[in-house]
Protein backbone atom coordinates (compact mmCIF):
# COMPACT_ATOMS: atom_id res chain seq x y z
CA UNK A 1 0.00 0.00 0.00
CA UNK A 2 1.40 3.38 -1.05
CA UNK A 3 2.13 5.36 2.11
CA UNK A 4 2.08 8.74 0.41
CA UNK A 5 -1.37 8.15 -1.07
CA UNK A 6 -2.72 6.90 2.24
CA UNK A 7 -1.11 9.80 4.09
CA UNK A 8 -2.75 12.26 1.69
CA UNK A 9 -6.12 10.62 2.33
CA UNK A 10 -5.74 11.03 6.09
CA UNK A 11 -4.69 14.65 5.59
CA UNK A 12 -7.86 15.23 3.56
CA UNK A 13 -10.11 13.85 6.31
CA UNK A 14 -9.88 17.22 8.07
CA UNK A 15 -10.19 19.31 4.90
CA UNK A 16 -12.36 22.43 5.26
CA UNK A 17 -14.45 21.29 2.29
CA UNK A 18 -16.98 18.78 3.72
CA UNK A 19 -17.26 17.03 0.34
CA UNK A 20 -13.50 16.40 0.20
CA UNK A 21 -13.55 15.31 3.83
CA UNK A 22 -16.41 12.85 3.29
CA UNK A 23 -14.87 11.43 0.13
CA UNK A 24 -11.54 10.85 1.87
CA UNK A 25 -13.20 9.15 4.83
CA UNK A 26 -15.06 6.79 2.48
CA UNK A 27 -11.85 5.91 0.64
CA UNK A 28 -10.04 5.20 3.90
CA UNK A 29 -12.93 3.00 4.98
CA UNK A 30 -12.76 1.02 1.72
CA UNK A 31 -9.03 0.49 2.15
CA UNK A 32 -9.59 -0.75 5.69
CA UNK A 33 -10.35 -4.29 4.57
CA UNK A 34 -7.02 -4.69 2.77
CA UNK A 35 -4.30 -6.73 4.43
CA UNK A 36 -1.45 -4.43 5.36
CA UNK A 37 -3.67 -1.41 6.01
CA UNK A 38 -3.03 -1.39 9.77
CA UNK A 39 0.69 -1.86 9.19
CA UNK A 40 0.73 1.14 6.85
CA UNK A 41 -1.22 3.23 9.35
CA UNK A 42 1.35 2.37 12.02
CA UNK A 43 4.15 3.54 9.71
CA UNK A 44 2.38 6.86 9.15
CA UNK A 45 1.91 7.40 12.88
CA UNK A 46 5.59 6.70 13.49
CA UNK A 47 6.97 8.87 10.69
CA UNK A 48 8.58 12.14 11.79
CA UNK A 49 8.49 13.39 8.20
CA UNK A 50 4.68 13.43 8.08
CA UNK A 51 2.62 16.37 9.36
CA UNK A 52 1.55 15.86 13.02
CA UNK A 53 -2.12 16.49 12.20
CA UNK A 54 -2.02 13.72 9.59
CA UNK A 55 -0.38 11.35 12.06
CA UNK A 56 -3.07 12.19 14.60
CA UNK A 57 -5.80 11.46 12.04
CA UNK A 58 -4.16 8.08 11.39
CA UNK A 59 -4.00 7.39 15.14
CA UNK A 60 -7.69 8.21 15.55
CA UNK A 61 -8.49 5.84 12.67
CA UNK A 62 -6.41 3.10 14.31
CA UNK A 63 -8.18 3.45 17.65
CA UNK A 64 -11.63 3.35 16.04
CA UNK A 65 -10.73 0.43 13.75
CA UNK A 66 -9.41 -1.63 16.65
CA UNK A 67 -12.42 -0.75 18.81
CA UNK A 68 -14.97 -1.79 16.19
CA UNK A 69 -13.26 -4.68 14.43
CA UNK A 70 -10.48 -6.25 16.49
CA UNK A 71 -13.14 -8.57 17.85
CA UNK A 72 -15.87 -9.53 15.40
CA UNK A 73 -19.23 -10.78 16.64
CA UNK A 74 -20.24 -14.35 15.84
CA UNK A 75 -22.79 -12.87 13.47
CA UNK A 76 -20.77 -9.95 12.11
CA UNK A 77 -22.45 -6.61 11.57
CA UNK A 78 -22.22 -5.17 8.04
CA UNK A 79 -19.71 -2.56 9.21
CA UNK A 80 -17.44 -5.13 10.90
CA UNK A 81 -14.53 -6.01 8.61
CA UNK A 82 -12.10 -8.30 10.46
CA UNK A 83 -8.49 -7.18 10.89
CA UNK A 84 -6.23 -9.79 9.22
CA UNK A 85 -3.96 -11.87 11.51
CA UNK A 86 -0.79 -10.39 10.00
CA UNK A 87 -1.97 -6.87 10.83
CA UNK A 88 -2.91 -7.95 14.35
CA UNK A 89 0.59 -9.31 14.91
CA UNK A 90 2.22 -6.18 13.47
CA UNK A 91 0.00 -4.01 15.66
CA UNK A 92 1.06 -5.82 18.83
CA UNK A 93 4.71 -5.63 17.81
CA UNK A 94 4.64 -1.91 16.97
CA UNK A 95 2.21 -0.15 19.29
CA UNK A 96 4.34 0.03 22.45
CA UNK A 97 7.50 1.16 20.61
CA UNK A 98 5.31 3.86 19.03
CA UNK A 99 4.17 5.03 22.47
CA UNK A 100 7.81 5.13 23.59
CA UNK A 101 8.92 7.15 20.56
CA UNK A 102 5.96 9.52 20.23
CA UNK A 103 6.23 12.82 22.13
CA UNK A 104 2.70 13.91 21.15
CA UNK A 105 0.26 13.41 24.02
CA UNK A 106 -2.76 13.61 21.71
CA UNK A 107 -1.40 10.76 19.59
CA UNK A 108 -0.41 8.76 22.67
CA UNK A 109 -4.00 9.00 23.93
CA UNK A 110 -5.26 7.42 20.70
CA UNK A 111 -2.61 4.69 20.77
CA UNK A 112 -3.45 3.96 24.40
CA UNK A 113 -7.11 3.55 23.51
CA UNK A 114 -6.24 1.06 20.79
CA UNK A 115 -3.86 -0.76 23.12
CA UNK A 116 -6.53 -1.21 25.79
CA UNK A 117 -8.88 -2.93 23.35
CA UNK A 118 -6.16 -5.26 22.08
CA UNK A 119 -5.21 -6.16 25.65
CA UNK A 120 -8.85 -6.82 26.55
CA UNK A 121 -9.10 -9.39 23.73
CA UNK A 122 -5.63 -10.94 23.53
CA UNK A 123 -4.01 -10.79 26.97
CA UNK A 124 -2.67 -13.04 28.31
CA UNK A 125 -3.27 -15.97 25.97
CA UNK A 126 -2.50 -14.27 22.65
CA UNK A 127 0.02 -11.79 24.04
CA UNK A 128 1.95 -13.72 26.70
CA UNK A 129 5.07 -11.55 26.66
CA UNK A 130 3.34 -8.24 27.30
CA UNK A 131 3.70 -8.13 31.09
CA UNK A 132 7.45 -8.80 30.90
CA UNK A 133 7.82 -6.10 28.25
CA UNK A 134 6.09 -3.60 30.54
CA UNK A 135 8.28 -4.55 33.51
CA UNK A 136 11.39 -3.94 31.41
CA UNK A 137 10.11 -0.50 30.43
CA UNK A 138 9.29 0.43 34.02
CA UNK A 139 12.74 -0.57 35.26
CA UNK A 140 14.73 0.86 32.32
CA UNK A 141 15.61 4.23 33.84
CA UNK A 142 14.87 5.92 30.50
CA UNK A 143 12.13 8.53 31.01
CA UNK A 144 10.31 7.86 27.73
CA UNK A 145 10.36 4.11 28.34
CA UNK A 146 9.20 4.49 31.93
CA UNK A 147 6.38 6.78 30.78
CA UNK A 148 5.36 4.26 28.10
CA UNK A 149 5.44 1.51 30.72
CA UNK A 150 3.14 3.57 32.95
CA UNK A 151 0.75 4.24 30.04
CA UNK A 152 0.67 0.54 29.15
CA UNK A 153 0.19 -0.56 32.76
CA UNK A 154 -2.76 1.81 33.07
CA UNK A 155 -4.40 0.48 29.90
CA UNK A 156 -3.88 -3.13 31.01
CA UNK A 157 -5.58 -2.40 34.33
CA UNK A 158 -8.37 -0.50 32.55
CA UNK A 159 -8.96 -3.50 30.28
CA UNK A 160 -9.81 -5.71 33.27
CA UNK A 161 -11.20 -3.24 35.81
CA UNK A 162 -14.84 -4.33 35.50
CA UNK A 163 -14.26 -8.08 35.29
CA UNK A 164 -15.24 -9.84 38.48
CA UNK A 165 -13.91 -13.22 39.56
CA UNK A 166 -10.88 -13.13 37.29
CA UNK A 167 -7.27 -13.54 38.34
CA UNK A 168 -5.70 -11.30 35.68
CA UNK A 169 -6.04 -7.99 37.53
CA UNK A 170 -4.59 -9.27 40.85
CA UNK A 171 -1.62 -10.67 38.92
CA UNK A 172 -1.04 -7.32 37.22
CA UNK A 173 -1.14 -5.63 40.62
CA UNK A 174 1.41 -8.11 41.99
CA UNK A 175 3.73 -7.64 39.02
CA UNK A 176 3.56 -3.88 38.43
CA UNK A 177 2.54 -2.05 41.60
CA UNK A 178 5.69 -2.49 43.74
CA UNK A 179 7.67 -0.88 40.91
CA UNK A 180 5.04 1.78 40.23
CA UNK A 181 4.99 3.02 43.83
CA UNK A 182 8.78 3.36 43.77
CA UNK A 183 8.67 5.34 40.51
CA UNK A 184 5.99 7.61 41.96
CA UNK A 185 7.92 8.18 45.19
CA UNK A 186 11.02 9.07 43.17
CA UNK A 187 9.03 11.46 40.95
CA UNK A 188 7.73 13.18 44.05
CA UNK A 189 11.28 14.08 45.03
CA UNK A 190 11.43 16.54 42.11
CA UNK A 191 10.47 20.04 43.35
CA UNK A 192 7.32 21.31 41.58
CA UNK A 193 8.23 23.78 38.85
CA UNK A 194 6.48 25.15 35.78
CA UNK A 195 9.05 23.55 33.47
CA UNK A 196 9.10 20.07 35.03
CA UNK A 197 5.98 18.31 33.81
CA UNK A 198 7.51 14.83 33.70
CA UNK A 199 7.19 14.20 37.44
CA UNK A 200 3.51 15.18 37.82
CA UNK A 201 2.62 13.33 34.61
CA UNK A 202 4.13 10.11 35.96
CA UNK A 203 2.41 10.65 39.31
CA UNK A 204 -0.91 11.28 37.57
CA UNK A 205 -0.59 8.09 35.48
CA UNK A 206 0.46 5.92 38.41
CA UNK A 207 -2.20 7.16 40.82
CA UNK A 208 -4.86 6.81 38.14
CA UNK A 209 -3.70 3.22 37.63
CA UNK A 210 -4.05 2.44 41.34
CA UNK A 211 -7.47 4.09 41.47
CA UNK A 212 -8.64 2.13 38.43
CA UNK A 213 -7.50 -1.13 40.01
CA UNK A 214 -9.75 -0.74 43.07
CA UNK A 215 -13.06 0.02 41.37
CA UNK A 216 -14.49 -3.42 42.21
CA UNK A 217 -11.90 -5.23 44.29
CA UNK A 218 -8.84 -4.85 46.48
CA UNK A 219 -6.34 -7.58 45.71
CA UNK A 220 -4.70 -9.63 48.49
CA UNK A 221 -1.43 -7.84 47.73
CA UNK A 222 -3.08 -4.42 48.12
CA UNK A 223 -4.56 -5.46 51.46
CA UNK A 224 -1.16 -6.45 52.83
CA UNK A 225 0.93 -4.12 54.96
CA UNK A 226 3.72 -4.65 52.42
CA UNK A 227 1.61 -2.73 49.90
CA UNK A 228 -0.48 -0.47 52.11
CA UNK A 229 2.51 1.12 53.86
CA UNK A 230 4.39 2.42 50.77
CA UNK A 231 1.23 3.39 48.90
CA UNK A 232 -0.20 5.05 52.01
CA UNK A 233 2.97 7.06 52.53
CA UNK A 234 2.93 8.09 48.87
CA UNK A 235 -0.70 9.21 49.03
CA UNK A 236 -0.11 11.20 52.20
CA UNK A 237 2.96 12.85 50.67
CA UNK A 238 0.99 13.84 47.56
CA UNK A 239 -1.84 15.30 49.66
CA UNK A 240 0.63 17.23 51.83
CA UNK A 241 2.67 18.49 48.88
CA UNK A 242 2.67 22.28 48.72
CA UNK A 243 2.79 23.41 45.09
CA UNK A 244 4.35 26.85 44.55
CA UNK A 245 2.14 29.35 42.73
CA UNK A 246 4.75 29.74 39.98
CA UNK A 247 4.60 25.99 39.21
CA UNK A 248 0.95 26.06 38.10
CA UNK A 249 -1.29 28.41 36.06
CA UNK A 250 -2.63 31.54 37.73
CA UNK A 251 -6.18 30.95 36.50
CA UNK A 252 -7.89 28.64 39.00
CA UNK A 253 -9.73 26.56 36.39
CA UNK A 254 -6.50 25.98 34.48
CA UNK A 255 -4.67 25.28 37.74
CA UNK A 256 -7.18 22.58 38.61
CA UNK A 257 -6.48 20.94 35.24
CA UNK A 258 -2.70 21.06 35.69
CA UNK A 259 -0.79 17.80 36.08
CA UNK A 260 0.19 18.51 39.69
CA UNK A 261 -3.41 19.05 40.76
CA UNK A 262 -4.62 16.08 38.73
CA UNK A 263 -2.15 13.96 40.71
CA UNK A 264 -3.42 15.41 43.98
CA UNK A 265 -7.03 14.79 42.91
CA UNK A 266 -6.29 11.10 42.31
CA UNK A 267 -4.56 10.79 45.70
CA UNK A 268 -7.66 12.15 47.46
CA UNK A 269 -9.91 9.92 45.38
CA UNK A 270 -7.94 6.78 46.26
CA UNK A 271 -7.99 7.50 49.98
CA UNK A 272 -11.74 8.08 49.84
CA UNK A 273 -12.33 4.90 47.86
CA UNK A 274 -10.22 2.77 50.18
CA UNK A 275 -12.20 3.99 53.18
CA UNK A 276 -15.69 4.01 51.67
CA UNK A 277 -15.52 0.74 49.72
CA UNK A 278 -13.14 -1.44 51.73
CA UNK A 279 -11.96 0.21 54.95
CA UNK A 280 -15.04 1.18 56.95
CA UNK A 281 -16.38 -1.79 58.96
CA UNK A 282 -19.68 -0.04 59.70
CA UNK A 283 -20.43 0.34 55.99
CA UNK A 284 -18.97 -2.94 54.73
CA UNK A 285 -21.75 -5.13 53.26
CA UNK A 286 -22.11 -8.58 54.80
CA UNK A 287 -21.25 -10.13 51.42
CA UNK A 288 -17.79 -8.51 51.61
CA UNK A 289 -17.08 -9.21 55.29
CA UNK A 290 -15.17 -12.42 54.65
CA UNK A 291 -12.95 -10.87 51.98
CA UNK A 292 -12.35 -7.43 53.50
CA UNK A 293 -13.40 -7.57 57.17
CA UNK A 294 -9.88 -7.89 58.55
CA UNK A 295 -8.57 -5.21 56.22
CA UNK A 296 -11.39 -2.85 57.25
CA UNK A 297 -10.63 -3.26 60.96
CA UNK A 298 -6.94 -2.56 60.34
CA UNK A 299 -7.68 0.38 58.07
CA UNK A 300 -10.16 2.14 60.35
CA UNK A 301 -7.86 1.68 63.36
CA UNK A 302 -4.46 2.52 61.92
CA UNK A 303 -5.04 4.41 58.70
CA UNK A 304 -8.30 6.35 58.81
CA UNK A 305 -7.25 8.59 61.75
CA UNK A 306 -4.14 9.65 59.82
CA UNK A 307 -6.28 10.58 56.82
CA UNK A 308 -8.55 12.68 59.06
CA UNK A 309 -5.57 14.45 60.63
CA UNK A 310 -3.93 15.24 57.28
CA UNK A 311 -7.20 16.45 55.75
CA UNK A 312 -7.78 18.72 58.74
CA UNK A 313 -4.30 20.18 58.22
CA UNK A 314 -5.10 20.91 54.57
CA UNK A 315 -8.34 22.67 55.50
CA UNK A 316 -6.53 24.78 58.09
CA UNK A 317 -3.90 25.79 55.52
CA UNK A 318 -6.62 26.65 53.01
CA UNK A 319 -8.70 28.69 55.46
CA UNK A 320 -5.63 30.62 56.62
CA UNK A 321 -4.75 31.46 53.00
CA UNK A 322 -1.43 29.62 53.26
CA UNK A 323 -2.35 27.02 50.63
CA UNK A 324 -4.81 26.60 47.76
CA UNK A 325 -7.19 23.65 47.38
CA UNK A 326 -8.95 22.69 44.18
CA UNK A 327 -12.72 22.27 44.29
CA UNK A 328 -12.42 18.54 43.61
CA UNK A 329 -9.99 18.09 46.49
CA UNK A 330 -12.27 20.09 48.79
CA UNK A 331 -15.15 17.83 47.79
CA UNK A 332 -13.12 14.71 48.62
CA UNK A 333 -12.17 16.09 52.02
CA UNK A 334 -15.72 17.02 53.02
CA UNK A 335 -17.07 13.69 51.73
CA UNK A 336 -14.57 11.88 53.93
CA UNK A 337 -15.52 13.99 56.96
CA UNK A 338 -19.22 13.19 56.52
CA UNK A 339 -18.56 9.45 56.29
UniProtKB/TrEMBL annotation:
It holds the Pfam family IBN_N. InterPro entries: ARM-like, ARM-type_fold, Importin-beta_N. GO terms for molecular function: small GTPase binding. One of its GO terms (biological process) is protein import into nucleus. One of its GO terms (cellular component) is cytosol. Residues 24-101 form the Importin N-terminal domain. The keyword Cytoplasm applies. The gene is I1RW22. Keywords: Cytoplasm, Nucleus, Protein transport, Transport. It comes from the Eukaryota. It is found in: Cytoplasm; Nucleus. Its main location: cytoplasm. This is N/A. The lineage of its organism: Eukaryota, Fungi, Dikarya, Basidiomycota, Agaricomycotina.
Amino acid sequence: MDLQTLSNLFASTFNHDPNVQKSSELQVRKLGAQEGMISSVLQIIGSDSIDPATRLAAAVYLKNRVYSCYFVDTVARPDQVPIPPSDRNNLKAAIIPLIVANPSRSITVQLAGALKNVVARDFPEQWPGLAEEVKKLLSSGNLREVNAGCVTALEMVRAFRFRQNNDVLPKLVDEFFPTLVNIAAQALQSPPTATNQDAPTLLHLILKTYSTSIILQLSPHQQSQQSLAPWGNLLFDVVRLQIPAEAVPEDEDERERSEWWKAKKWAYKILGRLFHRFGNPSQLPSSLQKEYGQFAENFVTNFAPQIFKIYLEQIQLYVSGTAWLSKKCQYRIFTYFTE
